[in-house]
Design goal:
mainly alpha, 10 helices, single chain, Fic-like fold, 259 residues
């Protein structure tokens, strides 16, 4: 873990050295990552759209034959929630319970409007998981306490990952808890000057097992380690993309946009 933290700090320092990024380079990176975030986050939850299909739905409004309407609406919802998440990340206002609820509302706005931004009043379970969630009657007080903690949490990777875990442990919504938690995590990472990270579909089992261990065994270490590994890899990819070019020249400039 110490090695990972050291590596992340070094890559973050290199990214800071390249700032401010050109508006053109920033726009390209954001477009790629926002589609990636949408595809991976939805795929983990069972959405059947491929990466290319997700991009076509988002960028061109193309419907994919044989895929459900909900799969299409989830792609549109999540992508637009990512755009709002970036807007909030660029502001200085505290991130609290209201932001979490609004993230969920946007994630489910078209695909599941009946639950969008509404805390569940029913028991929640994950099929095949030993994790249990709080009684729905406790959700309001737990969310209020979480929001207070969140407002004071510094925008550092470890805290962003802990915020992700804490929200999934409360599991306040009937559906969309994972997607909301990952967007909240990335909001905090962006505020700290880090790129957003995607949990890849091939890492689904490791990711879910680490979350379950944190919940059942009260051991957050495997989850923190996994997420720090993903951040380290993401930073390396992000830096590589910034230096890419047809002649090998760096693609950074003097724009003042945030990450």
């Amino acid at each position: 873990m110490n090695r990972l933290v050291t590596s992340i700090r070094a890559k973050k320092a290199e990214l800071d050295r390249l700032r401010p990024l050109s508006a053109d380079a920033l726009a390209r990176l954001q477009k790629y990552y926002d589609v990636e975030l949408t595809y991976t986050s939805n795929a983990i939850e069972g959405n059947t759209l491929t990466h290319r299909e997700t991009a076509e739905v988002i960028e061109h409004g193309i419907t994919v034959g044989g895929k459900s309407l909900r799969d299409h609406l989830e792609a549109v919802d999540h992508y637009q929630a990512v755009q709002w998440m970036r807007e909030v990340a660029a502001q200085a206002t505290p991130v609290g319970e209201a932001v979490v609820v609004e993230l969920h509302r946007r994630i489910a706005a078209r695909s599941q409007p009946e639950i969008a931004g509404i805390c569940s009043r029913l028991p929640r379970r994950i099929a095949g998981s030993a994790a249990t969630f709080p009684n729905p009657l406790k959700i309001p007080s737990l969310m209020e306490a979480f929001g207070t903690w969140l407002e004071a949490a510094p925008p550092q990777p470890a805290m962003a990952f802990e915020a992700h875990y804490r929200l999934t442990a409360i599991h306040p919504f009937a559906d969309g808890n994972g997607r909301t938690s990952r967007l909240l995590m990335n909001l905090l990472l962006l505020r700290g000057g880090y790129p957003p990270l995607a949990v890849r579909l091939e890492d689904r089992k490791i990711y879910l097992d680490a979350l379950e261990r944190a919940s059942v065994a009260d051991d957050l270490a495997p989850f923190q380690a996994f997420m720090h590994e993903r951040l380290d890899v993401t930073l390396a990819e992000y830096l590589g993309a910034l230096w890419e070019g047809p002649t090998g020249d760096q693609r950074v400039g003097t724009g003042r946009s945030p990450l």
